[in-house]
Amino acid sequence: MRSQSFRLPTQTLTTSLSTPLRTFSSALRSQPTPLTQSLPSFRTSLTSASSLSFGLTQQTRSFSASASLAGRRATYNPSRRVQKRRHGFLARLRSRGGRKVLQHRREKGRKSLSW
Q1: In terms of CATH architecture, what is 79-114?
Q2: For residue 88, how many other CB atoms are within 10 A of its CB?
Q3: Range 84-90 average pLDDT
Q4: Is the dihedral of CA 38, 75, 60, 1 positive or negative?
Q5: How far apart are the C-alpha atoms of 95 and 103, rounded to whole Å?
Q6: pTM flag (> 0.70)
């Protein structure tokens, strides 16, 4: 496993104020995960920020958008809709790797670029 360094949210606020061009927030990465809470090496670093992250972890639901990023579904129920969502042209345009796939298929002269 990789060990992650833990940054307090106050540090991310000061860095975001010094660089106004960055529009995204890195506060989500600083939240402790249940895996890191169970490891004894992270317990000492999390005790100081446990009061800060308590309010953030209470608001998350068991059914969230991050659950859809898990990859595998509970049951295998294939459909054309899911196939096009995962391997379709618009899905290829959304990701960096997908745009590379489209570029290589254009260079090779493929008749169909994607599903």
Answers
A1: Orthogonal Bundle (1.10)
A2: 16
A3: 95
A4: positive
A5: 12
A6: no
Task: State how far the Cα of 19 lies from the Cα of 95, in Å rounded to an integer.
Answer: 26
Range from 45-54, 62-71, 97-106 that averages highest in pLDDT: 97-106
Whether residue 72 contacts residue 65, with contact meaning beta carbons closer than 8 Å, is answered with no
Return the percentage of the chain with pLDDT > 70, whole number.
37
User: Are the beta carbons of 102 and 111 closer than 8 angstroms?
Assistant: no
- Output the CA–CA distances (angstroms, integers) from residue 2 to 5, 35, 36, 41, 56, in the order listed: 10, 12, 10, 12, 23
Alpha helices in the chain (DSSP H): 9-18, 34-38, 40-46, 50-59, 80-87, 89-94, 96-108
Nearest 10 degrees: CA dihedral of 52, 53, 59, 60? 170
